[in-house]
Amino acid sequence: MVSEGFKPNVATLVTILSACSHIASLEKGEQIHSYAKDEGFELDISLSTALVDMYAKCGQLDKSRKIFDAIKEKDAISWNVMISGYGMHGDAESAIEIFQQMKQSNVRPNELTFLAVLSACTHAGLVREGKCFFDRMRNYALSPNLKHYSCMVDLLGRSGNLHEAEDLVLSMPIAPDGGIWGSLLSACKIHNNAEFGIRVAKHAIEADPENEGYYVMIADLYLSLGRWEEAENVRAKMKEMGVRTRAGWSTV
């Protein structure tokens, strides 16, 4: 584009920085940042936010925070990007700090804000804080969507609160998707709770009877408990559905 005499504008740079973020290319991102400064581009909110995102996704949180702090009039997107940046690197304390600063500003948190801070709590295993933020959505007249519920189920499941996670799924006002059930099943595996996993798998099959992965999971869970006949019944059902599994082996 430049070689043919066309000068990039802010939208061009934001788009390229987004590409750098997706592939976590710090070298290319820094080149675009240098180009913007050399060409005299004003670091408006869209370009600054794109730089915050790029540096955060490339692991340069100090640079990301420095640019973020320099933004005079932050909007919801810039706040959300900084919260997400800390969250993806497991720094939940800083993510929560940014959320508190946002709350004190004149910018109202939205669904993505809460998703970002819930994700941060999930990565850090902060159960009490995650529950608090989830409940706080009501204060802003926001309704949790599937992604918010998925974060909470993952957080509760990973911490061993399997029953609480199951209760949350069953109380959802929207139908849980495969990702939510899969997250809870993974938690059962992590905590080696096959009995609970079988119950969860049955719920999952009821919700999505065409998902062959649930049949494979529940058959394996039965086998782990030595309940061979029930495992064979599930495998017969799988064969009836035309589900094919990889060959495996076990030791007794």
TrEMBL record:
Xref: InterPro entries: E_motif, PPR_At4g14850-like_plant, PPR_rpt, TPR-like_helical_dom_sf
- Domain of life, per lineage: Eukaryota
User: Which residue ranges does UniProt annotate as crossing the membrane?
Assistant: none
Which keywords has UniProt assigned to this entry? Repeat
UniProt cross-references to Gene3D superfamilies, sorted A to Z: Tetratricopeptide repeat domain (1.25.40.10)
| Any one GO molecular-function label of the UniProt entry | RNA binding
Q: Name one Pfam family in it.
A: E_motif
Q: Name one GO biological process term.
A: RNA modification
Per-repeat ranges for PPR:
75-109, 110-144, 211-245
Which PANTHER family does this chain map to? (WILD MALAYSIAN BANANA) HYPOTHETICAL PROTEIN (PTHR47926:SF397), PENTATRICOPEPTIDE REPEAT-CONTAINING PROTEIN (PTHR47926)
Name of protein:
Pentatricopeptide repeat-containing protein
